[in-house]
Design goal:
By secondary structure, this protein is mostly beta strands. It contains no helices and eleven strands. 0% of the residues lie in helices and 51% in strands.
């Protein structure tokens, strides 16, 4: 099982970014997926969830509607679109895969760094 995030980088406040998470080594379409982030000096914060077929999505209240999670099961790729970037979005963003509802996540990627600064 492998998850590889990409798309991070330096962005200006008010801008947008799209993060990707490429999956391999497992049947992607059978797994629910999430994005989480860890800001410098802080703990891991879950920010978005999408069910295996993409029909159910949840977001953390803290992101205030500025994130959109999506997936392309044919491409085995998960996405996170972040709009209206704020300095507090600066963090390392991780994707995670889970097959069993209610269970812990099975696999995590290595993360991609997002830095929001003018």
């Amino acid at each position: 099982v492998q998850l590889v995030e990409s798309g991070g980088g330096l962005a200006q406040p008010g801008g947008s970014l799209r993060l990707s998470c490429a999956a391999s080594g497992f049947t992607f379409s059978n797994y629910a997926m999430s994005w989480a982030r860890q800001a410098p000096g802080k703990g891991l914060e879950w920010v978005a969830y999408i069910s295996s077929d993409g029909s159910i999505r949840y977001y953390a209240d803290s992101v205030n509607g500025r994130l959109t999670i999506s997936r392309d099961n044919a491409k085995k790729t998960l996405y996170l679109q972040i709009y209206s970037l704020k300095p507090e979005d600066t963090a390392r963003y991780y994707c995670a895969a889970k097959k069993t509802p209610g269970a812990a996540y099975d696999s995590w990627g290595q993360g991609t760094q997002v830095t929001v600064s003018s």
